[in-house]
UniProtKB/TrEMBL annotation:
Chain ranges of the Histidine kinase domain: 20-227
Protein name, entry field: histidine kinase
Subcellular location: Membrane
Gene Ontology cellular-component annotations: membrane
Species: Macrococcus equipercicus
Molecular function via GO: ATP binding; phosphorelay sensor kinase activity
Transmembrane helix keyword on record: yes
Length: 228
């Protein structure tokens, strides 16, 4: 019990440190990016240096890590107005579908007939779907006809699932999946799933995973139903 308590406190402390540091990094980072862009503009086209694009994309990467950090540190979410989940998911998938087409991946989605309300905000829902669908995309080998399926359904709770036919995961990976900084990718951050889990749990939901090596992976999210 004591260990459990220490772990909770540790998590809160890390979260707070992460969020504060992330916040402090964001402003100077934005300034640096802006000035690099100005600097590039002051060059003639012919003299323009390819190093600029490297600097800019590395800055984008730092920005991405820092943004995830901010989400990780957020302890509780303010319970907002109920949103209708199908409408929000459809909106988000419009632009993700477009991106997936570049990777030759088909995005399939299905929805319940009746409207379903939950208190998770549309920004949070967007972050969750971006993280899960990015992982799904990265798990699909380029020589496979990729399919990602997003499904909204209702039983007692609201279900949202994201399924892919990618490389799947070993038991060992499944066990560490939600650990902060756990990654199997050469340039992964290991922050996508911890952030996703944090958002879902602060909204009173749960996330679980089913996966089989070479066959694919399904993430299953349960969210409280706020209509009743
Ligand atoms: P990152 O994507 O930066 O590695 P994540 O927290 O998003 O960090 O994911 C952690 C790890 O979980 C990944 O490195 C990968 O090994 C595994 N993983 C997550 N989603 C999938 C998926 N859909 N298929 C296979 N492996 C996955
Ligand atoms: Mg990821």
């Amino acid at each position: 019990r004591l260990i459990e308590e220490i772990n909770v406190q540790k998590k809160e402390l890390i979260g707070m440190l992460a969020a504060n540091t992330a916040h402090e990094i964001k402003n100077p980072l934005t300034a640096v990016k802006g000035f690099v862009e100005l600097l590039e503009l002051s060059y003639d086209k012919e003299r323009s240096n390819p190093h600029f694009s490297i600097v800019k994309s590395e800055l984008d990467r730092i920005n991405e890590i820092v943004s995830q950090f901010l989400l990780l540190g957020r302890p509780t979410s303010i319970i907002g107005e109920p949103v209708e989940i199908t409408t929000v998911v459809k909106d988000i998938l419009i632009f993700l579908k477009y991106e997936l087409e570049h990777y030759n991946i088909r995005l399939i989605s299905s929805y319940p007939e009746q409207p379903l309300y939950t208190t998770i905000s549309s920004d949070q829902l967007k972050q969750i779907l971006i993280n899960l669908i990015q992982n799904a995309r990265e798990a699909i080998p380029p020589d496979r006809q990729g399919i990602i399926e997003v499904k909204v359904s209702q039983q007692e709770h609201i279900f949202l699932s994201v399924r892919d036919n990618g490389e799947g995961m070993t038991k060992q990976t499944i066990n560490q999946l939600f650990d902060t900084f756990f990654t199997t990718k050469a340039n992964g951050t290991g922050l996508g799933l911890p952030v996703t889990k944090n958002i879902i749990e602060t909204n009173g939901g749960t996330i679980s995973v089913e996966s089989e090596v070479h066959i694919g992976t399904t993430f299953i999210i349960q969210l409280p139903n706020k209509k009743d």
